[in-house]
Amino acid sequence: MKSSSVSQAVVSPYAEALMSLAQEQNNLDAIAKDVRFVGNTLSDSVELSQLFASPLIGANVKKGVIESVFGSQVDAVTKSFLLLLVDRKRIAFLGEIISEFKSLLRVIDQVSLAEVTTALKLSRAQEDTICDRVKAMTKSKSVELAVTINPDLIGGVIIKVGSQVVDASIRGQLRRLKSSLTAGV
């Protein structure tokens, strides 16, 4: 618990600073695009994540990697931000900073994040239906889906938006049925 609060104390100020800078320079769209690109690159490359997380690898090496991987791909502000994280020895928190930045961006854009767990891959029509229901539930402009496939659900879907959870899975229905049957015994 303590490590997450320490992590959050490090992550939030950097994400908020980048958001503030992007807004001040009227460059939010470009920086948001860069942040998504950096986040996708980081999640696609375990080696890159490990390199940034390693205290044994020097700052110059990390800066060189940033220059070669992101140098011409991202805005100068984004690149400077990444280099600042290396200088401040905070580059290991890059993934968390990106997540926090995306959360701030969702608030600004009035986008709800729906964490969807399903037994099978959803069709485009099913995703659209879920988005429509979440929009109605949250009164947001749009919905971002984070879909996870879990075959243990057997069928159906679990949707989590903020603190609200809608369990329409077969596993959930079986669990509720079992509870009602055992409550009567």
From TrEMBL:
The keyword Transport applies. InterPro entries: ATP_synth_OSCP/delta_N_sf, ATPase_OSCP/d_CS, ATPase_OSCP/dsu. NCBIfam families: ATP_synt_delta. Belongs to the ATPase delta chain family. It is found in: Cellular thylakoid membrane; Membrane. F(1)F(0) ATP synthase produces ATP from ADP in the presence of a proton or sodium gradient. F-type ATPases consist of two structural domains, F(1) containing the extramembraneous catalytic core and F(0) containing the membrane proton channel, linked together by a central stalk and a peripheral stalk. During catalysis, ATP synthesis in the catalytic domain of F(1) is coupled via a rotary mechanism of the central stalk subunits to proton translocation. It comes from the Bacteria. The keyword DNA repair does not apply. It comes from Pseudanabaena galeata UHCC 0370. This is ATP synthase subunit delta.
